[in-house]
Every structure is written in structure tokens, then in C-alpha cells.
Fold these 4 entries.
Entry 1:
Amino acid sequence: MADDPKNWIVQATGLSKQVAVDGERLVILRSVDLAVRAGDSVAILGASGSGKTTLLGLLAGLDVPSGGRVHLDGADLFSLDEDARAKLRGRMIGFVFQSFHLLPALNTLENIMLPLELAGVRGARARALEIMARVGLKERARHYPSQLSGGEQQRVAIARAFVARPRLLFADEPTGNLDTATGARIIDLLFALNREQGTTLVLVTHDESLAARCAHRLQLHEGALQALPQPEDA
């Protein structure tokens, strides 16, 4: 059946999120439904403060919803405890944060190797060096984040996300802190790695050029999610 969670790599049903602000309930997401097939690419657009980052965090199990369910690869995410959710993320998810989240005490190579080392993967150094060359950071292996430009830091973050060869990549405004030219190169890199590894992409962005590259475009407005046509179909 089309609505069987096992037919989707990500499926959210009736997802909602509310928080208390000054004694009142603020509704961030209201009954969001979303289904993404393996290998697909999805852009989620919306104004600042519309709940895009909150939605991404819920889909990745980094936050807990007020209501609704999320299935990842058929697993009911919020029926698992925190340790089990972390193991599931480690097995199948990569995450690119808008603020990079690099560890300042680790150099480029060490930052990229980190997910592999935490997972006990053999050959971590060789695999990290391979993807480092792929993203044009071969000469920056021993540089620390403070010694890198914004674009270089974002490439480190992308390499770190892809090095474990995740089946699913979440990216939160991956070009948000970059100039136009650097952002365009980052977009090209994301989709090149997507093609090479068959990774499913779910991106939140305000960048229309990035969204247009995705197979599906959605918009968050007043806590609700709606489909948008592709520019050529509009």
C-alpha cells in the first residue's frame, strides 16, 4: 500500500509541535504529513521562523513532537528510546547544520573522521582522505576551523555528513551563511554527492536556486506544509 511506512525512507504523519511562551502555547507545526522515497530530493521553503528547522529536527529525531509520528526506514522513531534513536541516526543519517558545528579543537581531517571513529568503522582515515579530496580540501587536512573560510568550513561539514555514506541527508540552510558564488559551489557539491551515493536529500532553505534543483518543493506556512510546483511547471 502507498501509505505503508515501509514504502518510504521518511514518513511523518500528523506531526505537531507546540511550546510554552510566556504562559501561552505557541503552535510551531500543526498536523504535518510528509513522505519521501529513497533517493529522492526534497526542499522545504518558508519564511524565517516558520518552523523549518524544527521540522528537520523532528524528522531526524533530534527533538520530540507534541503529537504525530515519524517513521525512518520503517522504524517508528518515537517508539524508540534516545539511545535507540541515536543508533538509528548513526546508521543511516547525515546532518549538515547552518552553523557548521565543527569541533574547534579538531583539524579538518579529524572533524571528517569523527563519525566513522564514533561508529568504530575501520579505515576511517583513508575514507576521510578520499572524500576530503573529492570536496577540494586535500590541502587543508591539518587546518583547524578557525583557519578556514566559511565556504571551506561548510565543505568540511558536508564531507563529514557524507563520509559515513548515509542513506539520508538532512541539511539546514546549507548555503545560508555563504556568498552567492560559494553557495552555488556548495549546491553543486551536494547534488554531485547525492548522485554518486544515491543519498536521499531533505533540505530546508530560503534559497530558490537550491530548491529548484530538488525533485519536490514544499512550503511551510503558519505551521502547515503544502506542495509547490517546480518552477518549470508553474
Note: The helical segments are 52-59, 82-92, 108-118, 124-134, 150-162, 180-197, 208-212.
Entry 2:
Amino acid sequence: MNKRTTFRPLGVIAVAAAAALALSACGASNTGSPSSSSSSSAEANEFNLIEPGTIRVASMGDAKPYTFTDADGSFTGFDVELFTDVAKRIGYDEVVFTGQDFSGLLAAVANHQFDVGVAAIGITDERKETVDFSDGYLAGYLTVIADKSVGVKTADDLAGKRLGVVQGTLQEAYAVKNFPTTELVRFPDNNAGISALNSGTVQAHFTDYESAKTYGEQYTNLDLAINIPSFDAPAGFAVAKGNEKFVAALNEGLHAAMEDGTWKELYQKWFPGSPMPDMYLPEAEQTSTPTPAS
């Protein structure tokens, strides 16, 4: 055996050597070329995610029923379930949510600390200077919730009173513009604002309709005093500027979730009994949008 191998005819050795060289060349072509390596890497991370295969989401842990953490510390809520569904539609099962103060959330997305922001974030021209947005997926009302003993029923009743707002929200911007004689007290989240309301530090708190409804059910001394339409600033997914391919993919998944009824099912689950903005329903079901009673 050894002798036969050692003294293999030259022709066979030549063929073997040529084959080895050919295999070596193929190997270099497939694994050693910088261009082919970078090309496959780009294809594997076509949306320029921080970690290929995983979407990292900046959210809020106390914005029920949109985004919040449950008893186990897991993120849940309408926005969480909707985004997770959209992510699966574009090929991503790994979605990691991290809680942030709303005031710094968009900056964190813009600085590529997260791939996307998901927290019922209203789309405004000012915010579009910082980040890009998907199409809108939720529209509703801004609500002033007040202690019943204070007697707030209209915007005029807020004059001279202390009104809580979460810093960086649509409510803060609206209040600055439309409640000039009201003293604004800024909080990092709604829970802090409602706590201040119940302690008498502020006389009212400005939030969204769904959150106000939840707090109103929790605290019987509170009244949903003023409901203000906010259909000109629907919520969208926030993405760092320039990532058009990611935004387009999110829009495609979002529209599919609306058209097949997934959006409607989630809305009915998380906002039972609330007026439904039907511009997000399947096209055949769209009629008109009702207004909630004050």
C-alpha cells in the first residue's frame, strides 16, 4: 500500500495536483474575496439593523394599552403586538423591546441606538426632521383627565390651573400652543403625572384618550373632561433617517396587517368599546370615524 502510493505514476500526480489547485482557487473565490463577502453580508442585513436578524425597538414600559410591561416584565400592548406581527411578515422573529423615557426615544433611534421606535408616536413635521416614519397605523384623541371636584369641562376651565404633560409628547406641544394661560408641569411618564394629579400637585393631566380611559377606570375620582381630535398626527413607527428600504418593508407589512383584518382584531382586543378610526380597516369595511363622548 505505502509503496504503491509513494511511487504513483507522474501523470496521476500531475492530475491530482491540478485538481488541488483548482479546488484551492475555488475556495479563494468563494471565501477570500472581499467583494463577495461584503455582498453576502449586505444581503443578510438589508435593512442595516444593529444586529443582523434582530430588530431592536425603543419603546415605553408604562404607556398602557399601547406599550407596557406585564407582571413578568415582558412588553405587551397594541403597538407591541402589531409591530411584532409586521416584523414577522417581513421575515423577523427576533424583536427586542427596551423601555425608554419618551423625551429621549426619538433621539435614540436617530443615533442608531435602536432600529425603530414603537410607542404610539404621533407623526409631525417637527419629528420628521429627526427621524423617518412608516405610514400611520393609529389615530385618536388627546384627552384632559381631571379630578371631578375641580370642575374642568372645557379648555377655558384650564386657565390658571396646573396641567401635567409628558415631556416631548403631542400633548405638550398642543398645550403650549392652545392653553397659554395654563401652567404646564412636565413629567417623564403618565404614571408620574397621574400620581401628581391624585396628590393634588396638578389639577389635570393631558394624555391620550385610551390611557385616560384606563386611568379613569382605575381611579373613580377622575373624569375624562376634554377630548380633542388628533387625526392629523397618526402614530407611526420611527426609523433613523435614510433607511428607506426598511421603511418600505414596514409599510408593506403594515398594510397587509390592515387589509387581512389583523389590525382590527388587535384594536378590538386592546381598545374594547372605543371608537374605531376605520381608515385602517380592510378597504371594504371603511365607513366613517365616530367621536368619543366627553
Note: The longest strand covers residues 222-229.
Entry 3:
Amino acid sequence: MVSKIEPIYGTQRTQLATAVPLQTPYSIYVFPSTYCNFKCVYCAHMFSPEVIKEKYGLERQHMPMETFQKVIAQMAEFPQRFRLLSLTGQGEPLMNKNIPEMVSIAKAANVAERIEIISNGRLLSRKMADGLIEAGLDTLRISLQGLTTQKYKEIGGVNVEFDEIYENIRYFHENSKGTELFVKIMDVSLDPGEEAQFYDKFKDCSDRMYVERMLPAYAGVEITQGMKTNYDRYGRTIEHRKACPLAFYMLGVFPEGDVEPCDTIYKPIVLGNIHKERLLDMWQGEKLREFWKEHLRGNRDGNPKCANCNAPDDVSHPEDILDQDAEILLHRLS
């Protein structure tokens, strides 16, 4: 079967404004690791650990199994299953050696309709591939940094043999059983004329593939400094969004257990810590509700972390936009 040329996001979407407030978030992003083995030029991890901590407040950690097990147990307390559990975050998830076991535990607990990982693929050895497949991973999304070893050095900041990554991707796809494999690449990681080569190269070793647009996802990164856009990463023309939809349907859990209402690096608000509070209480709590209201009132930029974040204009979809329904939603939340 020839791979589909489609964006890697979930294509079955609900009109968010009709569903808010949700009893159960659609998605939860659990960060297995905030370490990364790449230094991509458009990412915060291009900086040293000291600069990352200073600029973004991010500590490099792996999530302990005790913390992960608490997250899964607390997810089970929600009235419905989550649509998505993404073992992804501000780092490379395969750097956590326990990642296959994490997938297995989450599958056994049946807390999400779909479990995915987004990875740069560097550590996708045959042993890792077999472990993830046997654990029951539903989707693996690979983010490429070029089609040559030289491009990986230029964009990813690492000495990596592209052919090795390519062969590991082929192995995963050939042995994937029920696991879907999506492959994506940023336009900046392709030389002129290479888009067709990308699609040709992965047409028979992936289920879905796509070229995304680079946007200013991290404030302070030189390559996107001062970049002005009127499109999202999928190339769709957009208008600036006032309210961030992500906070209305998502939770993010950092390795130490801190919980935020999105999956960004910035921690715009810490709702609590899973070692001290329950996820369900955080989702239903007044702290999050007031955060929602500030966004609906048009005060998103009043939060300095939110003001620096491009996610509403980057990864929000037309079905997610809340601005036109802000007054209705404020009344509903009151």
C-alpha cells in the first residue's frame, strides 16, 4: 500500500466550542523525558541545559516509573477514556529506557483510545522497535531532520547516518503489525526540489507522510526570530487566535509530576502535581476554569508564558477555534 500524503494530526475532530467544558480532556501528553539527543536549529534544545533552564524554566529529567504509574491510575478516574495518550513532550521519549514498558502499562489500563509517540527516530533500534510493537503502541510519528547525513548535521546539530535512520524506519514499518507509522519533515530540513524525493522515499515504508512548515515555536531561537506568518504548520492560512484552544481539551504532565493545561515548554500555569493532587480535581478545579476565562476574555497575552507561545496559531485546527464563541462559553462556564 502506498503511504498517504496527509498531516499527522488526528483527522476526526469535534467542533470544540460545542463540547466545552469537557468531562474528560481529549488528549493528555505525558513527558517520558525532557532530555533530547538532537540540537535542532528551530527548537529550544539547540541551547545548553543551563540556557534552557534560564530561558524556558525547563529541567532535564526522565519520568520515573512510579510517577508514570500514578498518572495512569489517575487517568482511570475520569468518566471517559481519553482519546489520545501521547508519550511525547519537550524532549526525545525514546531516551527513557522504560518507554516500551510505559506503553504496555497504559495499554493494559485501557485509559486511552490511542497511544502514540513522537520521536526523532535516532534511537529506534530493532530492539526498541520490537519492544514498542509488542507493547501495543498504536502510532509512531517520526520527525526527520533531512534526507542526508549532512542535512542532519546542519539542522539537527548531530552526526547521524541518515541511511541508518532510514533502514530502522523500514524495519519498523515491515514489522509493525497494528502500529501505524507516520513520517514528517519540516520544510527547512529539505533542500529545493527535495519534497518529491521525500514522498517517493517513504511511500512504501510509512502509513502517512507530510512536509510541515517551520513556525516560531520557541521564543529566542535565532532562525525564527522576528518571523511573521499568516499560516499554520500545515500551510493553512489563519487569523491570529486570541484564546488558546489547547487548554480546553488537553493536559500535559512533566517528568516530576507537574501538570499544565497544554503540552508546551513554558508551563503557563501549574495546575498541581500528581504526587499531591489528582488529575481529575485539577481538570475540574477553579484554577483551570479561571485560566480558561482569561483566554476567553481576550487576556491571553496577560500571561507572559502564553504571550511567548505560538501554539494557538501553529497547531490549532479550524474546528478548535473558540474566539467567535467566547461570550457564549464565558456564560456557560459561569
Note: The longest helix spans residues 162-174.
Entry 4:
Amino acid sequence: MKDLSKSLFERAVKVAPGGVHSPVRGYQSVGGTPFFFKEGKGAYLTSVEGDRYLDFCQSFGPLMLGHRDPDVHEAVIKTLEKIWTVGACEPYSLELAEWITAKVPFVEKLRFVNSGTEAVMSALRVARAATGREKVLKFEGCYHGHVDSLLVKSGSGLAESTGASSSAGVGKVVAEQTFVWPLDKMDGLEEFFHTKGKELAAVILEPLPANYGLLPQRKEFWDKVFDLAKKQGALIIFDEVITGFRVAPKGMAEVLGVTPDLVTYGKVIGGGFPIGCYGGREDLMNLVAPLGPVYQAGTLSGNPIGMMAGLTTLKKMEEINIWDLLEKRGKRFAQKLNTEFETQGLKARMRQIGSLFWMMPIDDFGCAPRAVSHIPPTLKDWFSKYFHECLKNSIYFAPNGFEVGFLGLGHTDEILDQAAETLVGIVKNIQQ
């Protein structure tokens, strides 16, 4: 353990719960004491001790262009020299809103907020107001921020499929507003919608589940869910906080060929600054105050710094067609790793979709899990060893085996080739 990081963490635990400001930053899942980082550039982080690490966390996804992209840096500095926050109408959020609504036709209107959680909370409020219904359906393994009613786990069966709280402080009445359904489970789906569908204000989902490993769904499963929901008058909410503008210019909605009623964004659209956004059909968004009866507000919403960082990021992504570039790099990286894993008889695989990937051990199920129940039970122990070996080799992943990895513009083929060679060696060592 690095001495300076250790001393900083000893100070941190005295002033913050667990010494962190978001639970996954702690090392409870992998053991040990968190490293502290003081600087980022491109694909790399530098620790407070001055050591450089190849970063596959990328702040959990916002940094499509990598740490401190020079064009985003310039835009931020220019904005800082003019304004920080205003609490009034300004042109910065207007520019970003016009860009998004022009590029994503089904986002007819939107509202900026400060986090993905806030975006989801607000979208649910709109859905309930629009339908006059209370209940929501989510899917096991999908995460939608720390909204009270969505911090739930599944019940024991169809008759008890309303959620049970997965966090202290969430009341039973709140948790029971949410039904939970397993991913990839077609059996019983029609019966569920037949018996409970008229109670649903909305079905909320990650169209590419990426918060409990990477669990892409069969298109026929999602198509069935969407069809049944629409027949029952429930709205479809896509939570694209991770995938929005990362997997494709119009996100997973474009990939699936589906038009959701409402969508939530975050991460990428802020270029590394705090941001969230919810939007969708004009008639639904017109329910939001001051135009309609759904109240939602935020002192720092539409902050000029985040707006300009996000707009500059998105424009540059489009200019260089980053989606095609990172898809090619990611695919090459995954193929290189998986070929070596197979050739050397190593029980690990990388699953990759665009610029997202997930490292995991494999068992008899193979490398194509689509539901939480498919994930190897050995994941936690395996990843703990893998994580610490990566640190020893100057590679940083999020400190939890269920978190996906992210590629950014700074991850060149040369860097990824070198990383692949190192990762194969690490997996080989921990398997022995």
C-alpha cells in the first residue's frame, strides 16, 4: 500500500462515511485501502505518490475523450473566464439542448439536472403524472441511481413480485411501488402484464444492462416487454445514463430501433462535469413546471461549465466518429485477449460492446450471461485477486467485479496491445 494514499484515507474515514463520497470508490468488495489519484490525462491517472496507471474506469463512463481532452479543457477555461453559475436564463444550456434535440428526434424537449439519479427520479414523476398510476416495473440487475422506489430487490415470485427494499431508510410502502422482473425471463411475462399492467405508470430499463456486469438482452425479450407495456398503457423509460451517446450517436434506442417515451442521460453529455438530463415526447415534457403541474427544480441545473464541456465533447465525438473508432479498438482488444485466454486454457473472458467491456471468470455457462443468475459465483473472489494484480502492474479498474470497463479516445491500439499482454499474464498468475 502506498504510504501517502494510506495516510489520506486515514484522514478521509474521519470525515466521510467509509472515507468515500460514493460507495463503489471504496475497496470493500476487493479488500485493501483505496489509492488516491491527483491527476488525469488521456488514458492515464497519476496517483498522489506520482505513479501512473492505465485507467479503464474513466470516471465510470463520462470520459469518451479521455481525461482532460485539450478541446474540452479550452472550452471550460473560456467559460470559466466569463461565468460560473447564474441562476437565470443563459445561452449555454440552450446550445446543448438544441444540439441534443436536433440529433435525437424522439427527444422533443428536455430538462437538465445535476445527476443521473435526479434525471430518473424526475422522469418517473412525469410518468406517474401522465398516466395517473403509481407502480413501476424495473428489471433485476438494472441500476437507476439511488431513487428510493428503485432501490429494491425482487420478491419470491409473481404474486410477491413487488420489490423489497435493498437499502435501509426506504420504507415498505415506497418499495412496494416497484415490481421487479428478472432479465431474460420470457416465461410468465404475459401473465404479469395481464394481472399488473394496468397499475404500471412506466417500465424503466437499461436497454443495455451495464451496472451488474455487461448483460445484453435478446432483442425478442425487449420487444416483448415493449409490446406488452404499450398494450397496457404504460410508458417506456430508457435509462441511458451510461449508454447515451456512448454506444451510438442516439444511444441504445438507435441500436434497438425503439422509440422510448422518456429517456434519461448523464455522464457523456457533461464531458466529465456533473450533469443529468431527462427528455422525450413534447406532451409529456410539457407537464413539467413551470408549464405543467409536475414540480422539479435545481439551483445549479444547466451549469454553464458542464454545458460547454458537454457540447464540446459531443461535437468532437461526432466530428471524429468516435463510435466507429472505439468499436474497432474495443473489438480488437477483446479478440486479442479472448484468443489468448482460449489458447492458454485460461478461465476468463472479456465481453465487449462498443467502448464498454467486462472482464469475468468463466464456468460451465460460458461467456454469454444475460441475467444476474447466470453470473459465475466465483466472480467476487476472482476479481479481488485480479484487481490487486492489475494495480501492481499499473492498471486501474473500478474496484468491483460487477462494474464494466470503459474505453476512451486515449486508449490507442498500441496501449491496448500492451495492456492485453499484461492482463493475460495476470489472469495466468491468479489461475495457478
Note: The longest helix spans residues 322-343.
